[in-house]
Structures are given as C-alpha cells and as structure tokens.
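Students often ask why we bother encoding 3D structure as a string. The short answer is that it lets us treat folding as translation between two languages. Here is a chain of 292 residues written in the first language.
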Amino acid sequence: MDIYSYVIKTSERFDESDLYFGHGTENSLDEAAYLVCGSLNISYDCDLQSLNYFLSSEDIELIEERIQRRIKEKIPAAYLVGKAMFAGFEFIVDERALIPRSPIAELILNGFSTLMTREPQRVLDLCAGNGCIGISIAKIYSESLVDLLDCDENCLKLAQANIAKHNLLDQVNVINSNLFEKVTEKYDLIVSNPPYVSSKEYESLPIEYFHEPKGGLVCRESGLSIPAKILQEAKDYLSEKGLLVLELGHSKSSLEKRFPLVPFLWVEFSHGGHGVLAITREQLTEYCNELN
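And here it is in the second language, the structure alphabet:
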C-alpha cells in the first residue's frame, strides 16, 4: 500500500476510536501522518500524495503495533515515535518530560516580536523539561548563552540528549535546581512553561495526558504556586532591561484574580495558543508588593 492511502486509512481508524488530539496535532489526519512519517523517518513536510512510497511488510508491522497502542492505550503519538517538532526543530521525547506544544514556539520564531529590542545574550529556560524552548532559542540566537533549568534530574538527562543532538554543547548548559535556588547569573530573557494545572483540572483531562509526568503539569494553589513564585523572584535574576515570558494556559484568569493590580501583558498568537504573559524586570520591581 502507498503511504498516502495508509495515512488516510489510519486517520479513519483514529476517527472511529475515542482519541484526543492535543500533543502536537489537532486532528486525526495530522496524527496519522505524524505517527506514520515519524515511524519511517520521513519528513512531516513531505507531500505524501506525490511521494510514491510503498510500505514494506516490515514498515506495516512496525506501524501497526504503534497504531494499536495509540488506540488501545491512548499513548500520544510523540511518545510512540520518540520525537516531536517544536519551533521547526526536531527533539527527542519520552515519558520523562512533557511533549513539546507550547505556543511560545511562535514567539521564538518571531524573535519575540515587539517584546525585546535587542537579542538576548543570556537566556534561562526555567522548568525546561526536555529543553525544547531553550534549545530553540539557542538555535535562533546563535550568540546567546542558554541555561536549561529543571528540578528533575531525569528531565535534564533528556535535555542533555537534545543539546547533543543539536550540537550545542558549547552554548547550552543545564542546571539542576528547584526554581532559582542554584541560579547565580542574571539573564536578559527568562522563559518558563512551568506546571500550572490545578488538581481539579487534571482529573478532567483526556487519558492521553496521564502518560505524561504529572509533576510537569500539576501545581498546588489552583495551579498558581509555582507561577506565583516565579513572578515574585524573577526580578532578582533579570538584567536591567530583562524580560520574563511565562506560560499559564487556562490558569490565566486565576492569576489575574490573585494579582488584580498587576498589568500583565498577555501575548496574542496567530497560530493558536493563549495564557502566555510578558513582564519586564522594571514592572516586576514596581509591582513587587502587589505580587506578594
């Protein structure tokens, strides 16, 4: 069978199953193409109709096993193929860290648009997971020095594998720390996609999310414990003109209720996504009392 027909048939099988698409794809066709192409190491950008690739029996055996696991166990396709795209770059993924899907990718590709007037020299990816945010920034800003920080040693081992994959050993470093505890530098840019899901929200998520590490998703105080701490402490680790970019997803409204006097700037995205704020060191300093 040719690859295009196989992807279409796989998509139809996914449609007939109770699956959720939210880990890098938004529909059954994209998910099918992701799983099939990822399994065969074929670029996701290929025009499958004109590719003229016919699957061997070995191809089908490999992919069928993964399709069955996707349908029966609800394992996200990224974990089944062991890789995911973020900001146009490919990353190694496994169940040690969340699957890359942050809308911050759009900000990175846009050079942080109007948020920064100059390229950052030092960057901190806080709660880095597999390192996709910080590594993507390092790829875009080749003169920057980037630290990937996480409290989970297993995440950092995965991040180190991605640093090596992208040949960034001289540009990107890892820090094992509980937020800012072991940080000694000041940064022009701190970007963070921390845990921000409340326990109540977590319990209602589709099964696919339960394959991801719970600690990367769930946060105390209705999802605000870690984001609030970052907002309270980040000013001490930002350079004079430094910027904090912080993702909160659906916890955006909870944060606004908790800190009603702080004028957060919420980033608007062209390709989907919400709940990402930007705030300068100057603003964090000015509103430090309101953030406590």
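Translate back mentally: The longest helix spans residues 57-72. Keep this in mind for the problem set.
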